[in-house]
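Subject: Re: docking follow-up (zinc ion)

Dear J.,

Thanks for your patience while I sorted out the input files. As discussed at Tuesday's group meeting, I've set up the holo structure prediction with zinc ion included as the bound ligand rather than trying to dock it afterwards. The sequence and the ligand SMILES I used are pasted below, so you can double-check that they match what you have on your end before we go further.
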Amino acid sequence: MIKFGPGNLRIPKFERPVYVVAGGLTDFRKRYPEKNTCQLCNEALRMAVEENDLKVDPEQYRRMVNWCVYSQFADHFGDQLLAAAKIHDYLGFDPLGNVEVKTGGATGGTSVLAAAQAIASGYADCVPVVGWERMDEVTTKVGNSYIASAACKDFESELGWMYAAYYALMAKRYQYENNVPRETLAKIACKNHEYAYYSPFSQNPGKYTVKEVLENEIVSDPLSYLECCVMSVGAAVLLLADEKTAYKLTDTPIRLAAICGGSHTLRTADRRHMPILLLPNENESTYKDYYGVRRKEWPGFSSFLAARMAAYLAYNMAGIKDPVEDFDVLETHDAFTISDVQTYEDIGLRPYGRGREFIESGDAYFGGRLPTNLSGGLIGTMHAVGATGVFQLVEILWQLQGKYDKFHGDPKLWQRYGKTKPADWRSLQVKNPKRGCAISHAGTGSHVTCAILERP
Amino acid sequence: MATDWPTSRLEVLNEEPLVVKNPKTWFHIHSYGGWGKFFKGLREKKLLATRCTNPKCEEKRLWLPPRTECPDCWHDMEWVEAPQQGTIYTFSTVKYPGELFKLPAGTHLISVELPGVCTKPMSWLKEGEPQFGMKIKAVFNTERPTNTILDLAWVPA
Ligand SMILES: [Zn+2]
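The structure tokens for the complex came back this morning:
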């Protein structure tokens, strides 16, 4: 779509407020033969219901649920069609209605959107969102091939069977247009691997130097292994409710102020040019020396229109004027370092062409103006695809409830996953955060959701 | 009647936890449908794109990969030969391809900019080292066609 009609940019609204009350995770591993998928989902659900200081016991919670949303990216991986039916049964929610959502890498975000729609409309009061992915039944090479079947199979997948390569094409173009140094991209990888180091859930933690990232083996030029997301097994659960139910469940519910979705062509190749869709913190003059001068095409290969659409709708829905000022914590879908820089611009943290400044200024770090991916993100902690968007919101929820330390600093939790809490562990709890945002993202930007959580 | 136990079995890879190997050896019968003309065109060294035939449609852009229906008005499109000379819009050398890739690791992937075409189709560079804006021309695999998009490649012009 190039020209917007009157209906296309309508700002979504909820008919009644939607709340998030609790979250649960498993740890994330490359291979997890010890537990089957039903067990992993059960473990994440039990953490959500039993370890989030809810005012009801598990039996009472089960009796309050009236609709369930399931989030899994690829039936290929799990090798079980209708997996949601099996998991729903094993979680003991039969015969309640449920739906399984599929929007690629953004499946988690879209699943939360679907749950929010059910609650906001009055269809349901109490909805668990259960996300998972089991990516260890095949070799990594076959896994990459499965993921690449989420590119266009007729005209693109054969060209590498590797999503990192499709991002690498964008990375090269972005670097060419915006002159972003490799060191800046490497810094994002260092940051997220380090934050993963403080998380008991993480799969690929580590304290790396920029030099180590740059000297790391290349997957598809210019992206190195340490700049790409992990391939994980694990689950994540988020509990949503209407206001009345939320306060029955907890004294500290967090309001879902907005969650909106955008889309764009599956093939990056097919993205036609259009005027830049402006966010509330931008105006015509923002791009007078840029668009049409330094840069000829938007969104082209360097920007995600889906992310811009999602942010445009969500910011207007939640009354966000300036994301860096208004958000206290952010989770981006850092599948690759390059897509993170692109997203900084799409969601208005910096104007187009200046995304690098968000990381170079220190804004993105713990202690900075908008700490980003304190969870460790997809690069450091997890990308069990169907669980990812749910995981992001669980981490934002815990930040807003002041529970980062509870869920990351307890030595017993580290032990549960067979790990030892590092002696140099540090708390990444943001001080008194009011508002958080999470971006869930698919394909090379085929679907994106933007969710905004706010302390009431 | 009596039925004997199956003769095929799943190989045990690990006892605790019990892990078995589940083979998958079948194939998919895939039709290119209305896009088949494009792939057949490659056999004749033709690069076939499509353009909307609706006189009321605003954009008369050339689509490659082709679409059989216009995304702007849903009208039928007509087949038109696209230019076979263009430039490299972006590129990457894939060092670690996924399973099923029919070309070697180290192949240069490229996105191609062609005059009059509204897309930047993904393809591969068969000869030379890629550079931004490098002039290239299409070559076609008529020797041993794979019957995939790989039958189109580019070389320096
Ligand atoms: Zn048309």
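A couple of observations from a first look. The interface with chain A takes residues 14, 17, 19, 22, 30, 32, 35, 59, 61, 63, 65, 89-102, 107, 109-111, 118-124, 132, 146, 148-150 of chain B (CB under 8 Å). The CA atoms of residues 141 and 148 of chain B lie 10 Å apart.

Let me know if you'd like me to rerun anything.

Best regards,
T.
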